[in-house]
Amino acid sequence: MKESACLLHTIYIGLGSNLENPVSQINAARIAIGLIDGVTEVAFSSLYHSLPMGPQDQPDYVNAVIGVETRLAPIDLLHQLQAIEAAQGRVRKGERWGARTVDLDVLLYGDQDIDIPDLRVPHIGIAERSFVLYPLFEIAPQLVIPGKGILADLVANCPLDGLKRMA
Fold it and tell me: Is residue 113 flagged as an active site residue?
């Protein structure tokens, strides 16, 4: 795998699931991310219960955010995350915001702004989604989101929209 100029980057990944025991799916994805060669977990948020985005005829979600350090290039990390999704039964049907066993999104890759066909970082909806902002704030309250602003300000202006921290 390519490495990103041997620099160690802090990356934040959003995890979500609403099928086949979502808590187990999130925990399995966390373990699998930690097993990626060259990736080290540095923080993991609480689990959060959230209402589905998009079609409402699907189960509620469980969400979390993991912080990792790696030298992997962004596209290589993305491919590893997509392999984890596939291994956990994720089927991409083209339906946006549909039900899924697991969804792993690169939210931030250091302070980089990435816009390539398969990857946009910061993640396109990061500044408006409570199920991303609140768990991210829990583990990295000092963050500044490139092009979006100070994380604390984004959280302060983002309604919970049914988001609940799980015990």
Answer: no
